[in-house]
Amino acid sequence: LDLEIDVNKDDASYYKEISKRVNKIDPDDRNTDLFIPLGIFIGEKIKRGTSAHWQVEKKYGYRPYFMPILIDASEKKYHPWYKLYEHLSKKKFDFDKYLTLVNSLGAL
Predict the structure, then answer these.
(1) 96, part of any domain
(2) CA distances (Å), 98 to each of 57, 59, 88, 90, in order?
(3) Which one in 10, 24, 44, 72 has a CA-CA gap of 20 to 30 Å to 104?
């Protein structure tokens, strides 16, 4: 994104700048380029704001796989990648709106 990434910045102008930079990237390329790093960044912001810690959760399907999640002291789970693919695929991505969504959901 050619932007200094700082998990300690919480101001609206910083979130708007992230959204602006993400929206410059073609929606078809956003998931390939940004899905993993943006999910980690969002997870670190959640971690800082909730005193949660990273943990790996085993998921079952055709083949079992592991998914990184955050868990706080009260066992509330946060999934930084929850519907991130869907949000990045939209014509206009709003970082602040997505972060608010993930923070409010928890325990999915």
Answers:
(1) yes
(2) 22, 23, 10, 12
(3) 24
Determine the structural domain holding residue 20 and report its residue range.
12-105
How far is Cα 79 from Cα 97, in angstroms, rounded to an integer?
15
* Number of separate domains in the chain: 1
3-state DSSP: the chain helix, strand, coil percent, rounded to 5?
A: 50, 15, 35
- Could you tell me the CA-to-CA distances from 94 to 41, 50, 74, 86, 88 in Å, in that order? 15, 22, 29, 12, 9
Element housing 65 (H / E): strand 65-71
Q: What is the pLDDT of residues 4-47, one digit of tens each?
A: 888 888 888 999 999 999 999 998 899 899 999 999 999 998 89
Termini Cα distance of the chain? 29
Tokens, residue 108: 């999915």
Residue 20 lies in a domain: yes
